[in-house]
């Protein structure tokens, strides 16, 4: 009997792989998971033996950080639709933010905050901390709490939005006695109260380091916490520091961020430009008030011509290697009175993700578009 090549391959090649020992499969699976959750899902789908020998993500997606999704982004749909459609959960929820790859949801009827794993479907009401700028306090609630608690201490004046990194809160604060620097602070999760009555209390902010950067933003880049900003008030040169370097007294900007590109607006996001050829690696995409000058309608009799003013800031990309600026988005989305033509560029989509005011409405960022909420509008503007 003559076997065809495919049958022989199945007999000689597939069976040994399908009968690998469970402990070896577990070891390989954890290494796959360290790279990306979706690769881990594909690994478990190879055969029933591999599936039964490895830990399923469902049910562990929120509690085990190893199963948190990475390398993904939720784009707005546009046309006034929510960022995610065709899911019953979003009939009474909206997405107001994300942390560690998970989606933070806001429920209409009771303003409850819930956390969703977008790929396993795990959902819970976890311990949540929210920064209340107007009250200069942090609100927090743990699983099972029926009401929010406020921090006993007040926040300093914040320079930028807070961000979550590895289960902790980070903020950029201003000290009125030192106006030339911003302070990077860390707020740890609620801890058991000293009274021993099973209640929680929030530790006060811990000042990590100060930075002289202008327009500073915190960003997670390559699994590290970094801070970026302009070197001076001219807003012409950008630098990036590792926060861990600053805390150790090493005040030296990074010469390169490699294949990464950082998008910075109200929030900052880091992506791998290697996967997106249209985006320049080792760069920062943000609003840039360039040195270009434009004429106004006002005539200056002393000069004998129309007066000039600095051009409006445009969304441009700054090459950290060459210290140069170049256009990142063709249209002027910051000041144009017209909505940009679709289809939108990838850079436009990602830049919108940095401005939650548009993103959580499902709109693409443009000055001509004003997000309008008909239900609880005072609760919708999240960054």
Automatic annotation (TrEMBL):
Describe the location of the KIB1-4 beta-propeller domain by residue ranges. Answer: 127-287
Pfam families in the record: Beta-prop_KIB1-4
Q: Which PANTHER family match?
A: DUF295 DOMAIN-CONTAINING PROTEIN, F-BOX DOMAIN CONTAINING PROTEIN-LIKE-RELATED
* Protein name, as recorded: KIB1-4 beta-propeller domain-containing protein
Which source organism?
Setaria viridis (Green bristlegrass)
